[in-house]
Amino acid sequence: MDQADNIRELYIGLLKQTVTFDLWDAADGNLWNPRRTSYRIVERILDRWHLKIFQIPPSDWRENGRGWPRFAHTMIGAKRIENLDVCMRTVLREKVPGDFIETGVWRGGACIFMRGLLRAYGVSDRTVWVADSFQGLPPPEADKYPADAGDQLHTMSELAVSLEEVQENFRRYGLLDDQVRFLRGWFKDTLPSAPIEKLAIIRLDGDMYSSTMDGLQSLYPRLSMGGFVIVDDYGAMESCRRAVEDFRDARGIDAPLMKIDRDGVYWRNGVPVPA
After folding, report:
1. I need a surface site. Which of 50, 81, 141, 162 has the fewest CB within 10 A?
2. How many Cα atoms occupy the beta-carbon half-sphere of 102 within 13 Å?
3. What is d(CA 275, CA 265) in angstroms, rounded to the nearest whole number?
4. What does the pLDDT read at residue 275?
5. What sign does the CA torsion over 75, 121, 201, 101 have?
6. What is residue 56's DSSP assignment?
7. CB neighbours of 97 closer than 8 A, spacing ≥ 6?
8. In the structure, what pLDDT confidence band is assigned to residue 21 with cuts at 50, 70 and 90?
């Protein structure tokens, strides 16, 4: 490895540690406030895992992306950012055509990492698409998507990060440029008509059945052979898991569903189950 390679790896490593706040030992605490309704909702979610909020050690919050950090620019954790790194380098090395997209970006950290890795490799012909409502999650449409019935994520103000704040985060890293495109609005409105020809990586972080299914239905037909689908909340949200399984069943997708950590999964387009 020559000096240029060493510098590139140093930059990419620091970028991963910075967006996840691991550079500071993930010591930024969490967003949960016991006086807020959203805190009580999170407690109910954790009850499904037979856990209490303060039984989860901070190291596990960040390594496995299970906490909502106060200062980090992403909540996906070390294992999922490493998975994104590996998937990106694979499509670059193998010249799998297409752009990168994340649906549901929160503060933008995962997308910032995508753009930073492209910069580190001098890639100028791919775009990072940043898709979000920038106002939190939508109220459930239980008549259309029964799996979302009773979902309360739309009440959590902590999940609503403005477009301006996300753009400012990109600017702070020196990565706000014309290779970053923002899709503002509900996925059902923005994704079908998004001016994207091909995708090499689809990263879904919409939590709900509707948001996950909207992303899959609109984006999967544009995914190149050899491209990756990454689903952030498959193991955490039953509604998300059902959307993924319904979509894969309907499309006859038999590519192996690989675990990243307790919650995240991914598969590669065109890679069948081994005989």
Report:
1. 50
2. 24
3. 21
4. 46
5. positive
6. S
7. 198, 200, 224
8. confident
Q: 131 Cβ partners below 8 Å, 6+ apart?
A: 101, 102, 103, 104, 105, 182, 183, 187, 190, 191, 194, 215
- Predicted TM-score (pTM) of the model is 0.86
Name residue 132's beta-bridge partners: 184
**Spatial CB neighbours of 121, under 8 Å, sequence gap ≥ 6:** 8, 92
Q: Which of 97, 118, 125, 107 is nearest to 12 (CA)?
A: 118
Angle among Cα 171, 80, 137 to the nearest 5 degrees reads 65
Beta carbons of 165 and 106 less than 8 angstroms apart = no
Please list the residues that pair with 130 across neighbouring strands: 102, 182
Residue type, 144: K
User: DSSP of 13-31, one letter per residue?
Assistant: HHHHHHHTTGGGTT-S--S
Q: How far apart are the C-alpha atoms of 127 and 124, rounded to whole Å?
A: 8
pLDDT average, residue stretch 7-28: 84
Under 8 Å between Cβ of 265 and 65: no
CA distance 230 to 218: 15
User: With contact defined as beta carbons under 8 Å apart, do 199 and 102 qualify?
Assistant: no
